[in-house]
Amino acid sequence: MGARPPIRRGALALLFLIGVAASSCGRTGPLDPAPKTDPKGTLFVFADLRGTLKPCGCSPDLRRGGLDRVAEVLRMAREAAPTGLVLHAGDLLLDDEGIPDILRAQIDRRLVAFADSLTSMRVDAVGLGPNDLQQPEWLAEAIPKLSVPVIVTNAPPNAPWGAHVKRSLLLDAGPLKVGIIGLVPGGAAGATDPLVAAQAESAALRGRGAQVVIALSSLGLRSAKRLARGGLGVDVMVAAGQGLEAVVTDEVETIGPEARPTFVLQSFVQGGQVGRIDIDLSGGGLSVYDPEAPPATGGQLRYTLTPVNWDLPRDAAVAAIMDRFDADLEAVNMSAAGDPIPAVAGQPTYVGVDKCFECHEETRAWYEKDQHALAWETLEKDKKTFDVYCVSCHVTGFMRPGGSSLKALEGRKDVQCESCHGPGSAHAEAGDVTLIQRSPTESSCKTCHNPKHSTRFEFDAYRERLLAPGHGLPLEGAKGP
User: Fold this and answer.
1) Is the pLDDT of residue 164 over 50?
2) Is the pLDDT of residue 120 over 60?
3) CA dihedral 103, 109, 115, 118 (to 10 degrees)
4) Could you give all domains of the chain from N- to C-terminal order, each with its CATH number?
5) CA 81 to CA 77: how far, in whole Å?
6) Residue 359: which of 423, 431, 421, 412 has the closest Cα?
7) How far apart are CA 168 and CA 176, in angstroms?
8) What pLDDT does 58 receive?
9) pLDDT tens digits, 169-206
């Protein structure tokens, strides 16, 4: 990772230009010319929230980000750069699951929390991504509820959601005039060719006085580089749209025509880092800052990344918004929750861990010390017992035939035997080992142990940890877990 930017506490003193009136002696003549202001500016960027107010933190790699801590980093950074712009690139409101019916009520309530948080953080502009565009009808309703400008330069002209976005924006980062465009993959929900749209809008922005043009991209790093080689006409591209497992660097890559190259920057997923872009055009032109070989002349661009780790404090205002969201989920999701899916006639159903222990008592001591048996307790600690995203992986048989639902969790809390071995009623009744999944498959584990929640999951290694006497190993002569 790159070095953390110099973030200092303590507000800067404001400078005021004080006019001096003519003296009583009748002095006349031209006023002194106003001092020339160097075209310098700062921008702060974060990326790919993907509908996440705060990452789940189930894996140590995911214990970073969250809007409350992003807001705190930005608050401190603005003390040193009060005129800095704040931009978000990439997927904003949704992840790759889109909007399943069971999550619709929660996602609608989350949209309110996002809107309130972005307002509190004073975000200047946001981009979208292909995950957001999976649900164009919902998006057309959602965008007007955001108080921040949504920039999609290659939005289709006639789509309902396209009518609610801006093609570009011209803003002041202090004395620096910054043009902002947003690019999504061509064809996504009817989006047009991003290269053609970027070239046209960049030229238009420069005609309106933009000294620098920034592209908020959700194309992913590889596609962003390919696009830059085509001559976008933009100065800086924030290459969002990367995967959860991407290795992010603060390296700035110079790509494209020599006459007007594009500086391609990376940014971490789910707000895990905040990038700071410092641009100084006072020397003319633009090149990447190199402390070991500073240019004799010409402007400079410097990019630094600050990790948003969970040892940082929470911004009070955004934390309150997120806490209200968690508190509201009981009413939101319980009113929307359906009954458990009935068991299918002739198919095994879920019986619960106590039924398993009637015959497998030797496994109880091992299970009660295993993390799977503490799954529900972790939700209680984090006040997530009504969050459908979380509950689905912390109970057994959630919304499966004969399993559990948010309204029916009795005897199904925690990740029990049947989460891995499948519904056990037929096996419990007959005692036939062929009527149960004796050795869980990798696909069954990856239902929850996926990159969103378990970045270090390796099936064989994790399976070895679960082998114990009475649980995969013979009882006699075997070592304990």
Assistant:
1) yes
2) yes
3) -70
4) 40-319 (3.60.21.10), 339-473 (1.10.1130.10)
5) 6
6) 431
7) 16
8) 82
9) 999 999 999 999 999 999 999 999 999 999 999 999 99
Specify burial of residue 184 (Cβ count, 10 A radius: 0-12, 13-18, 19+).
Answer: buried
Tokens representing residue 339 in the block: 């009954």
H-helix segments, 121-213: 136-142, 194-207
Q: Among 444, 437, 382, which residue's Cα sits nearest to residue 415?
A: 444
Query: Which residues on adjacent β-strands are paired with residue 471?
Result: 468
Cβ burial, residue 204 (10 Å; 0-12/13-18/19+)? middle
pLDDT at residue 20, as a whole number: 27
Distance CA 59, CA 54 (A): 13
Candidates 419, 417, 443, 423; CA nearest to 435 is: 423
pLDDT at 356 over 50: yes
Q: List pLDDT tens digits, range 312-353.
A: 999 999 999 999 999 999 999 999 988 889 999 999 999 999
Sequence-distant (6+) residues with CB within 8 A of 367 are 353, 373, 417, 471
- Token representation of residue 57: 């933190």
Both structure tokens of 24: 């009583």
The backbone region for 279, taken as left when phi is positive above 0, alpha when psi lies in -120 to 50, beta otherwise, is beta
Predicted confidence at residue 476, as pLDDT, reads: 59
Question: Minimal CA–CA distance to 273: which of 301, 305, 310?
Answer: 305
pLDDT computed for residue 297 by the predictor: 59
